[in-house]
Write a structure and sequence with these properties.
Structural class: alpha/beta
Distance between the termini: 55 Å
Mean pLDDT: 93
Number of domains: 2
Radius of gyration: 22 Å
Bound molecules: 5'-O-[hydroxy(phenylacetyl)phosphoryl]adenosine
Number of strands: 20
CATH topology of the largest domain: Rossmann fold
Largest sheet: 9 strands, mixed
Shape: globular
CATH architecture of the largest domain: 3-Layer(aba) Sandwich
Helix content: 25-40%
Length: 433
């Protein structure tokens, strides 16, 4: 079972990784050119031929793909194999426009599950573990990816899917789950529910693998404390396979990108210029081992930083920071860029839990921001003046961090709807106009 901690790949020298990437990229570009007419047309429009791409240094010559291309080419336009060769689809939970559908051959599923198995092993998983998968199953990639990874590690896999919190906790206690996989917001909710029921002593969790949405270091500390575990981040997106594109190791200082399968670039989201490693910008991925859905230079819209440094775990693959927001759903309020994670940091620093919602609106041509924040049961008070003072404190902290006024409304514990999947943090009413 050691196969899925693959030191010969995960700890390979930079030269070796580049050699793999060069060889695989050249083949992949030719493969996509031959099998995806939609992308071939984009290459032709840019005047690029496969012969122009001889190594990773030539990657910048290729055209980008965006979510708009995926929608244009929906459903089969970017699929590089005939339906007879594809064995699975997964799809995004997108709420606007057409869904994004990604295709997999059996080989693609195998490689994806390998990536998830690496993530589980990096979180300390072995065949002796009981892996409790509470990501949604079905079209969402979370359940399927971690489930397949857990099988590969040889762990006992609990395909819980999301929801039914009572049953989740009961199985956790009865079966001795040791690794929990779900969104960080659901992990926080499970932690809250377990502690409320006084069941913390009856759970045996040691680690959690949480991703699919942004979460802060403060939230990590809360979850780690609440469940008595080490909490690891995992990143991915449906278009590029799903979870496991990158994952955290014991150092917990960024997520190693599986560079034998994906080449990462950082670009300026406005000029599209490639930025040097270490600079903050939009993450772009090129898949170099996929058969069915081999996207080249796919713009993720996730803003982050790449760091190539010696890691205490021994892995050499480049690390990405936690995404710091998205270049598309970064909020611009009164001309100021606002990331929900900035507000979350303030709330958690001031002792609130990550149960909040931002409501953005436009009144008389001026943007408004209201932050609804749940009080914790300890803070809950009927005294209007006490609540008003707390609200004022948050208003000032937000003004100091964001430079704009945000109305703050403290609401009763448990009054903001909990999410079993990704939390709904932002309601932007301006989009409705
Ligand atoms: O969320 C895949 C996934 C499942 C990742 C389970 C991790 C665990 P999508 O639904 O296509 O796929 O959403 C992808 O979610 O572009 C990011 O904006 C965001 N995202 C994913 N992981 C993280 C993370 C899955 N660890 C989009 N931190 C991505 C912050 C994340 N944002």
């Amino acid at each position: 079972m050691e196969r899925y901690y693959q030191p010969e790949i995960e700890c390979a020298s930079r030269e070796q990784i580049l050699a793999w990437q060069n060889e695989r990229l050249v083949k992949q570009v030719q493969y996509v050119y031959d099998n995806v007419p939609y992308y071939r047309k984009k290459m032709e429009e840019k005047g690029v031929t496969p012969a122009d791409v001889q190594s990773v240094a030539d990657l910048h010559k290729l055209p980008f793909l965006t979510k708009a291309d995926l929608r244009d080419a929906y459903p089969y336009g970017l699929c590089a194999v005939p339906v007879s060769e594809a064995v699975r689809i997964q799809s995004t939970s997108g709420t606007t426009g057409r869904r994004v559908v990604a295709f997999y051959t059996q080989h693609d599923l195998d490689l994806w599950e390998d990536c998830c198995a690496r993530a589980i092993m990096a979180a300390g998983g072995t065949k002796d573990d009981v892996v409790h998968v509470s990501y949604g199953y079905g079209l969402f990639t979370g359940g399927a990816g971690l489930h397949g990874g857990s099988h590969k590690v040889g762990s006992l896999t609990l395909p819980m899917s999301s929801g039914n919190t009572d049953r989740q906790i009961q199985f956790m206690c009865d079966l001795g789950s040791t690794i929990l996989c779900c969104t960080p917001s659901y992990a926080a909710y499970l932690s809250e529910s377990i502690n409320e029921r006084g069941l913390k002593d009856q759970i045996h969790l040691k680690a959690g693998i949480f991703g699919a949405e942004a979460w802060t270091e403060e939230m990590r500390r809360d979850i780690e404390k609440g469940l008595g575990i080490k909490a690891y981040d995992i990143y991915g997106l449906t278009e590029i396979s799903g979870p496991g594109v990158s994952f955290e190791c014991s150092a917990q200082t960024g997520m190693h990108i599986n560079e034998d399968h994906f080449i990462a670039e950082i670009i300026d989201p406005v000029t599209e210029e490639v930025l040097p490693e270490g600079e903050k910008g939009e993450l772009v991925f090129t898949c170099i081992t996929k058969e069915a859905f081999p996207l080249l230079r796919y713009r993720t819209r996730d803003i982050c930083v790449l760091k190539r440094e010696k890691c205490s775990c021994g892995r050499t693959h480049v690390k990405m920071s936690k995404p710091m927001g998205r270049s598309d759903d970064m909020l611009i309020i009164k001309g100021v860029n606002v990331f929900p994670s900035q507000i979350e940091t303030i709330l958690l620093n001031k002792g609130y839990a990550a149960n909040y919602q931002l409501i953005v609106d436009r009144v008389n041509n001026s943007d408004t921001l209201e932050v609804q924040v749940e009080m914790t049961p300890e803070m809950f008070s009927d005294s209007v003046s006490e609540v008003t003072a707390k609200e004022k404190e948050l208003v000032n902290a937000m003004k100091a961090m964001l430079g704009i006024y945000a109305k703050v409304r403290l609401v009763a514990p448990k009054s903001i709807a909990r999410s079993e999947g990704k939390a709904v943090r932002v309601i932007d009413k301006r989009k409705l106009y």
